[in-house]
Design a protein that fits this description.
9 strands, 39% helix, alpha/beta, UDP-N-acetylmuramoyl-L-alanine:D-glutamate ligase, 6-stranded mixed sheet
C-alpha cells in the first residue's frame, strides 16, 4: 500500500488536523505515517490551547517515517512557527522524488492563529518553492500575498498566478469561501490554461474540509494520479464528506 507522510497538528475535536487526514487517507486506500507539529485543544467555536512540538522532534519524526521507504507523497498542514517550517523544509526529499501537497494552515476556522508571522515568511521562502501543489482558500491566498481577498474571478486568477510565480508547481485556489451556486476551485499550472473544478455549493459547512481535500490530493499523487485527476477525485471526496455525517 502506498503511504502518505502527514506533517500536521492534532485537533482534540477530531474534526480537522491529523485525525481528519488519517481518516481521509484510509478511505482512499492510502497508508498514513505522521509527524506531529502541535497538539491543540479546539472546538467549532475556539482554539483554547496550543502546545508546539520542538522542531528537532518534528525532524526526528520525519526522518523515522522517511526511513521506512514507504512514503509516496507528503502532505503538510499546521506548522505553527518559522523554526518548524525551516526544520520541515530542511528534512524534505526533493520534489522530483516525492510529491508534496502544501496546505497553508494560517488560522483555525474559529479564528485562532496557527502560523506566526515568521512562519508565514518562511513558508513562502522555503516551502512554497518545494510544493507540487499549494492549496489555499480565498482568504489564505490573499493573506500569503498581503492583499485583500479576491472579489472576482479575474482577481482570483491574478492571486493564483502570483503564488505560482513564487515557485509552486501548481496552485489550487479553493472556492468554498466564494459565492454563487457552484463552489469552483481553480487549478493553475505553469504553462497551462487555468482549469476549473466545480461542485454544487452546500448550505452546510464543516471544519476540516481543507485538511480532507489536501490529504485526498496527496493520496491521489501517492497512487500515481496526475495532479488534475488527483484534485478532481479529492473534490468529489469532499463533496461526499459534506453530504454525510462524518
Amino acid at each position: 500500500m502506498s503511504a502518505v507522510l502527514v506533517i500536521a497538528g492534532t485537533d482534540s475535536s477530531g474534526g480537522a488536523g491529523l485525525a481528519r487526514d488519517v481518516r481521509t487517507l484510509a478511505r482512499l486506500g492510502a497508508g498514513a505515517l505522521c509527524a506531529v507539529t502541535a497538539v491543540t485543544a479546539q472546538s467549532d467555536g475556539e482554539v483554547s490551547a496550543v502546545h508546539l512540538i520542538p522542531p528537532e522532534l518534528v525532524r526526528a519524526q520525519m526522518a523515522a517515517a522517511l526511513a521506512t521507504g514507504r512514503i509516496a507523497a507528503i502532505k503538510i498542514g499546521m506548522l505553527g512557527t518559522g523554526a518548524t517550517v525551516r526544520a520541515v523544509s530542511a528534512s524534505l526529499p526533493p520534489r522530483a522524488v516525492t510529491p508534496l501537497v502544501l496546505d497553508p494552515v494560517l488560522a483555525a476556522s474559529s479564528g485562532g492563529e496557527l502560523l506566526d508571522a515568521a512562519g508565514r515568511a518562511a513558508l513562502l521562502e522555503a516551502l512554497l518553492p518545494r510544493a507540487t501543489i499549494l492549496t489555499p482558500n480565498i482568504p489564505e491566498a490573499a493573506a500569503l500575498l498581503g492583499l485583500p481577498a479576491a472579489r472576482s474571478d479575474a482577481e482570483l486568477v491574478q492571486q493564483g498566478q502570483a503564488l505560482l510565480a513564487l515557485g509552486a508547481e501548481n496552485v489550487l485556489l479553493k472556492g468554498g469561501h466564494g459565492s454563487g451556486g457552484q463552489a469552483i476551485d481553480l487549478l493553475l499550472t505553469h504553462g497551462r490554461a487555468v482549469r476549473s473544478l466545480a461542485a454544487p455549493r452546500r448550505a452546510t459547512t464543516r471544519r476540516g474540509t481543507g485538511c480532507a481535500l489536501a490529504a485526498a490530493i496527496a493520496a491521489g499523487l501517492a497512487a500515481g494520479l496526475e495532479v488534475v485527476d488527483a484534485c478532481a477525485r479529492a473534490k468529489r471526496h469532499v463533496n461526499e464528506l459534506l453530504e454525510g455525517d462524518d
